[in-house]
Design brief:
Number of domains: 2
Structural class: alpha/beta
Order of helices and strands: HHEHHEHEHEHEHHHHH
Bound molecules: zinc ion
Distance between the termini: 60 Å
Largest sheet: 5 strands, parallel
Strand order of the largest sheet: 2-3-4-1-5
CATH architecture of the largest domain: 3-Layer(aba) Sandwich
CATH superfamily of the largest domain: P-loop containing nucleotide triphosphate hydrolases
C-alpha cells in the first residue's frame, strides 16, 4: 500500500475512496482538510483508478510512481483555479474522447473556489457530456465557494479538519512568539507585519500547533500549557478562533491580517476579566 501520512490523518476518506473505485463518479469534489491533504487524496484517487495491483494503490507500480511524480501522461493537474483559462479546458475536450493510456485520465483542478465563470462553464459542459475513461477531481476548502452547478454534478467528500502535528523548529519558534504575545501583548505583530514573515503553509502549521496545545490542555492541563488557565467554555472559544483563522487562510485572505487577528483574539480570550479593554 502507498505509505503517506495523509492516509492516516484522513483514513475515513481513504476508505471511502477505496469503495468508490468499483464505480467511479465522473467528478469527485474533495473539500475540507488542508490544501496538502486534498492534493494527496486527489493523487490517491488517481493511483487507485490506475494501479496495477489488486487491491491498490500499491505506490510502486509504474502508474503509481508516475502519478506521485506528476509525470503521468493521462493526468492534467491545474494548481490554481483562478489561473485556469477557458482555452485550457476547451483544448482538453478533444482529448477526452480518446482512450486513456492506462485505465483513467485524470483532470485535477486545485483551489476551485478561484475558478472564473468562463472556465467553470466550459468545465460544466464536459461534466454534462461525460466520456468514459475520464475522471475530474475538484479541490476546494469549502463547497459553498464553488459554482453550485459544479457541486451538483460532483460526488462530494468532506475531509476531517486536521489535528495531527509534527514538531519542527520554525513552527516552534513562531509558536513561542505567539505565546509571548498572548501572555504579554507584545512582539508578535512585528513578526507578522514583516512582508512574507509568515506564509500560508507556515500559518497553517502555527494553527495546527495551537490546536495541539489546546488538545493537550484538555487532556492533561499542565501549568506550562498556554491554555491551562482557561475554563472549558473559553477553551471551546479558542477552538472556534482557530477554526475561523484556518478558514480565512484557506480562502487566501492576507495571511498577515489573519495571523494578527488570531493572536489578538486569543490574547483577548486569555485576558478576559483582566480589564485589558479599558479605553
Ligand atoms: Zn500501483
Amino acid at each position: 500500500m502507498w505509505n503517506n501520512p495523509t492516509l492516516s490523518s484522513q483514513s475515513r476518506i481513504a476508505l471511502l475512496i477505496d469503495r468508490l473505485v468499483s464505480c467511479p463518479p465522473n467528478c469527485l469534489l474533495l473539500e475540507g482538510g488542508t490544501r496538502n491533504e486534498r492534493r494527496e487524496l486527489a493523487l490517491y484517487w488517481a493511483m487507485s483508478l490506475n494501479c496495477r495491483a489488486n487491491p491498490g494503490p500499491c505506490g510502486q507500480c509504474p502508474p503509481c510512481v508516475q502519478i506521485q511524480g506528476h509525470e503521468f501522461r493521462d493526468m492534467f493537474h491545474m494548481e490554481e483555479g483562478k489561473k485556469v483559462k477557458i482555452e485550457e479546458i476547451r483544448d482538453l475536450r478533444p482529448v477526452f474522447s480518446q482512450k486513456p493510456h492506462f485505465s483513467y485520465r485524470l483532470i485535477i483542478i486545485e483551489e476551485c473556489q478561484g475558478l472564473g465563470s468562463a472556465p467553470a462553464n466550459a468545465l460544466l459542459k464536459s461534466l454534462e457530456e461525460p466520456k468514459p475513461g475520464n475522471s475530474f477531481i475538484l479541490l476546494a476548502p469549502q463547497r459553498e465557494n464553488l459554482f453550485s452547478t459544479l457541486v451538483s454534478r460532483s460526488f462530494v467528500l468532506t475531509l476531517n479538519r486536521s489535528t495531527s502535528y509534527t514538531q519542527d523548529d520554525e513552527t516552534e519558534e513562531l509558536f513561542r512568539e505567539l505565546s509571548g504575545f498572548v501572555r504579554t501583548g507584545r512582539g508578535w505583530l512585528t513578526r507578522t507585519m514583516k512582508k512574507g514573515g509568515v506564509d500560508q503553509a507556515m500559518a497553517q502549521k502555527v494553527i495546527l500547533r495551537c490546536r495541539h496545545e489546546l488538545i493537550q490542555a484538555m487532556i492533561k492541563n499542565e501549568p506550562s500549557n498556554l491554555f491551562s488557565a482557561l475554563s472549558p467554555e473559553m477553551k471551546y472559544q479558542v477552538m472556534m478562533i482557530l477554526r475561523k483563522a484556518e478558514d480565512s487562510i484557506s480562502f487566501n485572505v492576507r495571511i498577515d491580517l489573519a495571523m494578527e487577528w488570531l493572536a489578538v483574539s486569543i490574547w483577548k480570550n486569555l485576558n478576559r476579566g483582566k480589564n485589558v479593554y479599558r479605553k
